[in-house]
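Tokens as discussed.
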């Protein structure tokens, strides 16, 4: 039985962003749907849509009416937890979030989504609204159907991107022969400070 090669600390950041970028295209990846935590302690699963390694920026999509939007506008610090069971990899991340409803990134997010995803922004009620009965919160004409471009365009007014610039990553690789753990932190100049830490 061969022992896997030890990770190289100064290559770890690049490898992490490669894995995150790959997860945006692979729905079966455990890294595709992290848990996002806001400063009020609320947690939710989000879909990772885009990764910009040079800016350490992750992109998610959200309804501008969602309670997390106002929370992030009050306090921009967020946490992200990724776990890939197959790769035996956990990433605990801290960063700074911002919401953009207009501009190139928002437009890229909207245009890059298919109509099944975009129909969610046609929801008549804001997310987390009280309902009288179980509901998809979709208009009847799009529930269970793929609407055409003209119909989903009405939802653009409710669409926004949530952008998170990562400032710290706690990398944890689980291994029955001995776990490995490292921390990467970026300073104000964008320089990374990395170290091994005890699992």
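Sequence:
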């Amino acid at each position: 039985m061969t022992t896997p090669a030890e990770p190289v600390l100064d290559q770890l950041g690049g490898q992490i962003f490669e894995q995150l970028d790959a997860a945006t295209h692979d729905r079966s990846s455990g890294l595709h749907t992290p848990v996002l935590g806001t400063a009020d302690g609320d947690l939710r699963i989000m879909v990772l849509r885009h990764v910009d390694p040079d800016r350490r920026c992750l992109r998610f999509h959200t309804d501008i009416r969602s309670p997390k939007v106002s929370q992030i506008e009050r306090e921009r610090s967020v946490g992200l937890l990724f776990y890939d069971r197959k790769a035996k990899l956990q990433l605990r991340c801290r960063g700074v979030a911002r919401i953009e409803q207009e501009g190139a990134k928002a437009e890229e997010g909207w245009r890059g989504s298919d109509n099944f995803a975009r129909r969610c922004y046609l929801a008549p009620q804001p997310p987390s609204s009280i309902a009288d009965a179980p509901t998809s919160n979709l208009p009847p004409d799009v529930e269970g159907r793929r609407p055409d471009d003209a119909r989903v365009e009405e939802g653009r007014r409710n669409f926004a991107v949530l952008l998170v610039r990562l400032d710290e990553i706690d990398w944890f690789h689980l291994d029955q022969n001995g776990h490995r753990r490292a921390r990467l932190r970026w300073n104000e100049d964008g320089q990374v400070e990395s170290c091994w830490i005890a699992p």
